[in-house]
Amino acid sequence: MKRFTRPWGIAAALALAVPVILLGAPAAHADPVSQTSGFYVDPNSSPARWAAANPGDGRAAAIRTEIAQKPMARWFGNWSGDIGSAVRGYVGAADAVDKLPLLVAYNLPGRDACGGHSGGGAGSVAAYDSWIASFASAIGSRPAVVVLEPDSLGDFNCMSQAQINDRVGMLSRAVGQFRSKAPNTWAYIDAGNPRWVDAQTMAQRLNMAGVGNARGFALNVSNYFTTGENTNYGNQVASALWRFGYSKPYVIDTSRNGNGSNGQWCNPGGRRIGTPSRMGGGAEMLLWLKTPGESDGNCGVGGGSSAGQFLPEVAYKMIYGY
């Protein structure tokens, strides 16, 4: 893996050197970092496929080097086909080269309920429970990092109490599936971003969603806020969790936060890629969870596109910050 500031083994040891407020939280599972030799680079990511298919394009070399060759997460949802086969193939490919895969589970019923750009998900609570159980089983004993359900705890304003209860119940059961079926996986529940929900409220929601049985929580997924802003917020959430008798570490999505946020969340212009995936950096890990260049939806500089569609011009400009 490229651009680690320290050798992987040393970085893994220093992962404990997070702010004091995060110490004392027991690990839910065995450490997948110490079992691997760096993060997995997905050879079939959308920027990698685009660069391979367009070698004569003047943007291809930069997109290949600055984005496609960096470790980033693969997202799994109702587009993934048989989820067991999809996950098994991905983590198996990473395991074969002794690398740590990053996965995002994104299939809750009514996902993105208030944003509206990435709607869909499993057809029912029971369907989701079955899907996530198969997801965890497919990882099995192989090392992995999984981020659970971006946006799931941030957008309660347009949901009924019954829908909220269903949602936190599904998340809590999902965490239980990873704890019992994927003992070498660190699972993080998405916790929004610094300007969405106040830290005390988010801690309460995380607790209801079963974060006590997860490795921790994830911040800034598919958003643009600086690492510093997220670190401040993450420390506040971690502190607020102590009222429930425990605290947890967190990870930050740095894939597109190099220029910070301009207040817009849906394909804003002028953004820039951030620190590549690494241990430490203020959080337990800084990770590329969103793929730079993949659209947030039919909005902003991605007008006319659909969520998840790779836009080479957006990716190219994100490399240079314009």
Describe this structure in words.
By secondary structure, the protein is an alpha/beta fold. The protein has one domain (8-320): 1, 4-beta cellobiohydrolase (TIM Barrel). The chain contains nine helices and eight strands. The chain has helices at residues 8-14, 46-53, 60-68, 83-96, 125-139, 161-181, 199-208, 227-240, 312-320; strands at residues 74-76, 102-105, 144-148, 185-190, 216-219, 250-253, 278-279, 285-287. Strands 1-2-3-4-5-6-8-7 form an eight-stranded mixed β-sheet. Helix 3 (60-68) crosses helix 9 and helix 5 (125-139) packs parallel to helix 6 (161-181). The two termini are 27 Å apart.
User: Counting H and I runs of at least 4 residues, what is the number of helices?
Assistant: 9
The sequence of SSEs as H and E is HHHEHEHEHEHEHEEEH
Work out the count of structural domains: 1
List the strand order in the largest sheet: 1-2-3-4-5-6-8-7
Q: Which architecture per CATH?
A: Alpha-Beta Barrel
Residue ranges: pLDDT <50 for 5 or more in a row?
1-28
Topology:
Elements: H1 8-14, H2 46-53, H3 60-68, E1 74-76, H4 83-96, E2 102-105, H5 125-139, E3 144-148, H6 161-181, E4 185-190, H7 199-208, E5 216-219, H8 227-240, E6 250-253, E7 278-279, E8 285-287, H9 312-320
Parallel strand pairs: 1-2, 2-3, 3-4, 4-5, 5-6, 6-8
Antiparallel strand pairs: 7-8
Keywords:
322 residues; alpha/beta; TIM Barrel; eight-stranded mixed sheet; 33% helix; 10% strand
Summed up, what is this model?
By secondary structure, the protein is α/β, with parallel strands linked by helices. The protein has helices spanning 8-14, 46-53, 60-68, 83-96, 125-139, 161-181, 199-208, 227-240, 312-320; strands spanning 74-76, 102-105, 144-148, 185-190, 216-219, 250-253, 278-279, 285-287.
